[in-house]
Automatic annotation (TrEMBL):
Natural source organism: Paenibacillus aceris
Record's bilayer topology term: Multi-pass membrane protein
Residues spanning the membrane: 24-49, 61-81, 120-140, 152-171
Organism placement in taxonomy: Bacteria, Bacillati, Bacillota, Bacilli, Bacillales
Subcellular location(s) of the protein: Cell membrane
Keywords: Cell membrane, Membrane, Transmembrane, Transmembrane helix
Annotated protein name in UniProt: Cobalt/nickel transport system permease protein
InterPro entries in the record: ABC/ECF_trnsptr_transmembrane, Cobalt_transport_CbiQ, ECF_CbiQ
């Protein structure tokens, strides 16, 4: 989390207008949602070039973020590709790839399920590269300015500000408490780990509530009036090269999608 925040301030695309970067990423995300898998692969590769090549984000951190997000998809893959049916003679499902019997149930994996999982993965991967481009190239403060510019309710922006602040406090609290437990001989053995983790979660909740009360008292003592002002939005010029490349690339991807749709109709 801290590394992502640091990279968002030190990347090579930081001087560019945050409104343009967010608009570009949103357009690519919409395109990735509506296009064929081949176009989604092209979008993922192109947005990776923007993030790693142009913004100069280290591949290590970029791959870690994408991989961590893909773990959530991996957890849902069994529900997509595995089917359960009661055993009824020699019933065989169409497009069955693998099957085995468990008690009175037949567990099968079909090619349709694998194809669906592959399509969803490509769509998710393309969308993740678009979101990662925003995270790595735009600081959170500028992202809030963009959201305010597009008239997101002030209450939502204030909640985002407070949650973002508490994320860092939460990580630091957990890290300090975990190190304290290890220094006292904790976090050893399976049973002890479960017990220490439960204690860690309880104490973390208590400390978080204390931090929240301290923040509330601090805001009230400073005359908080239910409004946390943001810095005014400052748009920066975008080099002509980036404008041309983004427009030409978007049009090429759109033409590729149109060609694929026409080709599928003629088949």
């Amino acid at each position: 989390m801290k590394q992502i925040d640091s990279l968002s301030y030190m990347n090579a695309l930081r001087p560019l207008s945050p409104m343009w970067k967010c608009g570009f990423a949103v357009m690519m995300m919409m395109l990735s949602y509506l296009t064929h898998p081949a176009v989604q692969v092209a979008i993922a590769c192109w947005m990776t070039i923007w993030t790693v090549g142009y913004a100069r984000i280290p591949v290590k951190y970029y791959a870690t973020l994408i991989g961590a997000a893909c773990l959530f998809f991996a957890a849902s893959v069994p529900a997509l590709i595995v089917e359960l049916h009661p055993v009824r003679g020699e019933l065989t499902l169409p497009h069955e790839v693998a099957a085995f019997t468990l008690l009175n149930w037949k567990v099968t994996v079909t090619s349709a399920g694998l194809l669906l999982a592959a399509k969803l993965f490509l769509r998710i991967l393309a969308s993740l590269t678009c979101v990662s481009f925003i995270l790595f190239s735009t600081p959170f403060s500028e992202l809030l300015q963009v959201l305010k510019k597009v008239r997101v309710p002030a209450l939502v922006l204030e909640i985002m500000q407070i949650m973002y602040r508490f994320l860092f406090i939460l990580f630091e609290t957990v890290q300090d408490m975990y190190l304290a437990q290890q220094a006292r001989g904790g976090q050893t053995g399976f049973k002890n780990r479960l017990k220490d983790t439960a204690t860690l979660i309880m104490q973390m909740f208590m400390k978080t509530m204390q931090q929240y009360r301290s923040l509330s008292n601090g805001l009230m003592s400073r005359g908080f009036t239910d409004d946390i002002p943001l810095a005014p939005y400052q748009g920066s010029p975008v080099p002509l090269r980036y404008k041309l490349e983004s427009c030409v690339g978007f049009m090429l991807l759109l033409l590729l999608e149109i060609w694929l749709r026409l080709s599928w109709r003629n088949v």
